[in-house]
Specification:
The chain is of the alpha+beta class. It has four domains: 99 residues, Tetratricopeptide repeat domain (Serine Threonine Protein Phosphatase 5, Tetratricopeptide repeat, Alpha Horseshoe), CATH 1.25.40; 219 residues, Neuraminidase (6 Propeller), CATH 2.120.10; 87 residues, Sandwich (Immunoglobulin-like), CATH 2.60.40; 125 residues, OmpA-like domain (60s Ribosomal Protein L30, Chain: A), CATH 3.30.1330. Helix content is 24%, strand content 33%. The protein has eleven helices and 39 strands. Strands 18, 19, 20, 21 and 22 form a five-stranded antiparallel β-sheet that branches. Strands 26, 29, 31, 33 and 34 form a five-stranded mixed β-sheet that branches. The protein has a five-stranded mixed β-sheet with strand order 35-36-39-37-38. α4 runs antiparallel to α5. About 2% of the residues have low confidence.
Length: 631
């Protein structure tokens, strides 16, 4: 019996030692960022702790295996929701987006915002957000798979003369612990057509046994900046935790050889500097970094390139661009638009591509490129040739060939209708006019109030029927129907001319500072307000004009002479104005097009403001009914 107990004791101790060694080994691999190898060991843990669930989810999350990540984060949050940091609420929401469970993802994203105490729209929902965004963004993209992708990771295109340069893990070198793929090298390619390309390794002076990625070249092709691990002259640099960070290096082309490889002075062994991008004038370098002073885990920075080849002090692009999470892969187009990838700004899931206009060094609020480009996984490294409106981006979306893949795109051209609004007779500009673009069903697409230049511009689509509508106070509304052809009538000019009502209708005149439909006096019996038969003839003329112009709006103003008290005259005039209004409405004029006001004796057209001052016919002038144009 004693031997049996001793044996069981030894087995128990041995099992405990094996479990301890297993978890120790798993944690070591996790710290080394060998996530997939670590995951295999964490899976063997029978009594999984909160820490194991967290790390299991992270191992898959960091390799964009979102189905597995969501599975383990779900268990983590079911068991330990009140104990985890807000980070895991966020990662679970992103993993759920990665499997297109957007409603559940939105729920956990709201919890993340609340627990992290972030100032964010807590009611935002992914699908409705992109539905609204797509109604505002008219640009469309045609996306193509390119023939340069491999089963491994391919990403980060840059333009290099008539070729492109990109990063790839297609070589047979040493594998990177993070994802068990070979270390990245740079490759250059000449794409022949959609099915074929010539791909060759970039310079052996640049490629090493470590990572190289995300190169950018000056226009003359003689200088390049690129990202590499902290590795030069065969030596690998590490921080105090034995982590090898990324740095940006500069190289020069001398006699067709890349040489003079030097690291930039703001690199460090203690943080990463990556993803270089040049401004159009090549006087500034943009990049991503987690250097001290960053808002999030990675921020975008810009640094001046001085004429003597030195560099200024890197400047953080600020909280309009950078968030508490990741901003990476900047690119500056020729029209000075910043494109970048972020998982901090609200998006479809993972990294999304955003753009921000740069004006006089100031960046505009970023705009998501929408699901016309972005997917529910990572989308990044966007570059565009503004002249041809073509470019490339990278993504690990489900339909790809390998891990990360490169896609080309064509940005569909934007077509515009331009013009000015004028007075038809004087050709004077008419600022403050309202101009609207309508579709073939008379549904308003867009409306503007033109400025002092009276100019308008609307984006239009090819092969569509439209209507251009213009209106202005005291002017006859005008409409022009037109159709765009298959080419979109690019930048077509269509001026809109409006006419004053008084220039079109002789019955419309300007009197007493008012534009009004001129009518003979409308008579009422003493102390009465019902419409007499002789008044109907005059009112029918008003009806005819208003039916001719269905958008015309008038004010019926009834006035009295000075006989009688002020209160009596005011009430009598209100009743008479209302009677006239009711008559016009009974003849088919819209309620919305007429309003009635009684002015009593407050607006005489002469100085007959007291009894006994004037002849009777002069008092008669003040007993009137005016039909003043409001619109």
């Amino acid at each position: 019996m004693k031997k049996i107990l001793t044996t069981l004791f030894i087995l128990t101790i041995s099992t405990q030692l094996m479990v301890a060694q297993n978890i120790k080994r798993a944690n070591h691999l996790f710290e080394k960022r060998a996530y997939l190898d670590a995951a295999e060991l964490f899976l063997n843990e029978e009594n999984k702790t909160q820490d194991v669930y967290q790390k299991l989810g992270d191992c898959y999350y960091f390799n964009t295996k979102m189905s597995d990540a969501a599975q383990w984060y779900k268990i983590l949050l079911t068991k330990y929701e009140n104990d985890v940091t807000p980070t895991y609420y966020y990662r679970y929401s992103q993993a759920l987006k990665g499997i297109k469970n957007f409603s559940e993802a939105d729920k956990w994203f709201k919890k993340y915002n609340s627990k992290a105490q972030l100032l964010s729209d807590n009611d935002i929902e992914t699908l409705s957000f992109f539905e609204t965004l797509n109604s505002q963004i008219k640009i469309s993209y045609t996306i193509h798979k390119v023939p340069i992708n491999s089963p491994g990771s391919d990403f980060g295109v840059s333009y290099y003369g008539d070729k492109i340069v990109f990063s790839s893990a297609r070589n047979d070198g040493k594998k990177y612990d993070w994802n068990n793929q070979p270390y990245l090298d740079l490759y250059e390619a000449e794409i022949i057509n959609k099915d074929s390309a010539n791909v060759t390794p970039f310079s052996s002076k640049i490629n090493t046994k470590m990572h190289e990625s995300n190169a950018v070249f000056t226009k003359d092709g003689k200088t390049m900046y690129f990202t590499r691990n902290n590795y030069i002259d065969g030596k690998k640099g590490k921080d105090s935790n034995k982590i090898t960070h990324l740095k940006i290096y500069k190289a020069q082309l001398v006699d067709d050889n890349w040489t003079n490889i030097t690291e930039l002075p703001f690199n460090s062994n203690n943080y990463s500097v990556e993803h270089p991008a040049l401004s159009p004038d090549e006087k500034q370098l943009y990049f991503a970094s987690d250097m001290p002073g960053s808002i999030g885990s990675f921020d975008l920075f810009v640094v001046d390139i001085n004429t003597d080849g030195t560099y200024g002090t890197p400047k953080n692009l600020g909280s309009k661009i950078n968030t508490e999470l990741r901003e990476q892969f900047p690119f500056i187009s020729s029209n000075n638009t910043l494109y970048f990838a972020s998982n901090g700004h609200f998006g479809m899931g993972g990294l999304d591509i955003f753009k921000s206009e740069i004006t006089n060094g100031t960046v505009a609020t970023p705009v998501n490129l929408s699901d016309k480009i972005n997917s529910n996984l990572d989308d990044f490294a966007f570059v565009i040739d503004d002249k041809t409106e073509t470019g490339y981006f990278s993504s690990n979306r489900a339909e790809g060939v390998g891990d990360d893949d490169i896609y080309s795109f064509t940005q569909e051209k934007s077509y515009f209708l331009n013009g000015i609004v004028q007075d038809k007779n004087t050709l004077e500009l008419l600022p403050d006019s309202k101009i609207s673009l309508l579709d073939k069903n008379n549904k308003t697409i867009s409306s503007i109030i033109v400025g002092n230049d009276a100019a308008y511009s609307f984006e239009i689509e090819k092969n569509k029927k439209y209507k251009l509508s213009g209106s202005r106070k005291l002017y006859v509304p005008s409409e022009i129907e037109f159709t765009t052809d298959l080419n979109g009538d690019i930048n077509k000019t269509l001026n809109l001319q409006l006419e004053l009502y008084k220039d079109v209708e002789k019955e419309i005149v300007e009197e007493n500072g008012k534009t009004q439909i001129k009518a003979n006096p409308i008579y009422f019996d003493f102390n009465k307000w019902n419409i007499r038969n002789d008044a109907e003839l005059e009112l029918d003329n008003v009806v005819a004009i208003m039916k001719k112009y269905p958008k015309m709006i008038i004010e019926i103003g009834a006035h009295t002479d000075c006989f009688g008290s002020d209160d009596y005259n005011l009430k009598l005039s209100e009743k008479r104005a209302q009677s006239v209004r009711e008559y016009l409405v009974s003849k088919g004029i819209s309620n919305n097009n007429v309003k009635s006001v009684g002015y009593g004796e407050t607006q005489p057209v002469n100085n007959c403001v007291k009894p006994g001052m004037c002849k009777q016919e002069e008092y008669d002038l003040n007993r009137r009914c005016e039909f003043v144009l409001v619109n």
